[in-house]
Amino acid sequence: MELVAKTMAGLEEVLAEELRNIGASEIEIGQRAVKYFGDKKVMYRSNLELRTALRILMPISRFRARNEVDLYNGVKKVFWDRYIRKGQTIAVNSAISSDFFNHSHYVALKTKDSIVDQLRDRWGERPDVDVEDADIRINTHIHRDRVTISLDSSGTSLHKRGYRLEAVEAPINEVLAAGLLMLSDWDRKTDLYDPMCGSGSFLCEAARMAINHPPQSYDREYAFMNWKGYDQEIWDEVVMESKSLVKPLDITIKGFDLDQSSVNASLYNIAEAGLRGLVEVEKMDFFENMEIPSGSFVIINPPYDIRLKQDNIVEFFKQIGDHMKTNMPGTTVWIISSNIQALKLLGLKPSRKFNLFNGPNPAKFHKFELYEGSRKKS
């Protein structure tokens, strides 16, 4: 079957590699999405195991539409009782990039109207709509005049791992946190530190990677479990195979934060992620932290702009660079920031760069190699 995995801008290549690793075929990279083919097992594994996917869609119809009548009629040509049972609730969302349609909510509404009108004609009753917890979720995507109707196999967005119940201001998205770790050169065998850990997203994602635990919990419910043709035996096989790969943590994964509420949030989320006792968190000022040993891997999401006034940004990033140069020799440090100018104030030359988005904001992800003593010239 054809499938589409949605992701964040800049993570498409990482997602494609993940798909290769779970047996997907005919992989085609798009913009914030990767198209591929696979059987039910691949689809089930996609939802459980892909760390950089936001949701997994299964296209069921494509047609052209330039107005609401074309859209309504095109949707109505789908035999919806192949996918929806009597008594099941539905929800529709949409994404549009078109000169012919300019309101995604209206597109979703017209799609819903067409579906329920058809099923009312067939059944004599309309299916109920449940925006929050629908049994069957439908996605309408319009690019120019090309419409794709898909079933959403995931349900709740896959970035919601279920562990982040406590959050600080502007926490990093879990899919982005996992994607940054996978973009970096972290080998999952090197001690990892996050000295500005916030609510602990990097720590939780890194620990689950290091022990081969999938990004999702095993008891999570997915929309595909409500589909006609759902195979419980295949799902049980996917879960059993995944559990067999989980191993003990044999490296140090540790976070620090100056704010006690952030420390508390991290510890709470770590426990919810099933990682209690595996990941350490301490209250500590980054600029007084001398506990990161040489040879470690460090990842930092500085609290730029949101928790700091603009007047303090210049001095703050200069201090980060000075501390790294003086107190973190022999480490590899990756920093993400949406304040592009502030990154230049570190006074360090990055050895690798990635352009990404952190939420709606463009961001840079830079690698800094801090050598012991002076760097030897080749």
Tally of distinct domains: 2
For the biggest β-sheet, the strand order reads 2-3-1-4-7-6-5
SSE series:
EHEEHEHEHEEHEHHEHEEHEHEE
The CATH architecture term of the largest domain is 3-Layer(aba) Sandwich
In helices, the fraction of residues equals 25-40%
Cα-based radius of gyration, to the nearest Å: 23 Å
Question: How would you name the CATH homologous superfamily of the largest domain?
Answer: Vaccinia Virus protein VP39
The shape is elongated
CATH class label of the largest domain: Alpha Beta
Helix/strand-derived category reads: alpha/beta
The end-to-end distance, rounded to whole angstroms, is 51 Å
Annotated CATH topology of the largest domain = Rossmann fold
Number of strands: 14
Mean pLDDT: 93
Largest sheet: 7 strands, mixed
H/I helix tally: 10
Low-pLDDT windows of residues: 374-378
InterPro entries: DNA_methylase_N6_adenine_CS, RlmKL-like_Mtase, RlmL_1st, SAM-dependent_MTases_sf, THUMP_dom
GO molecular function, one term: RNA binding
Keywords: Methyltransferase, RNA-binding, Transferase
Protein name: RNA methyltransferase
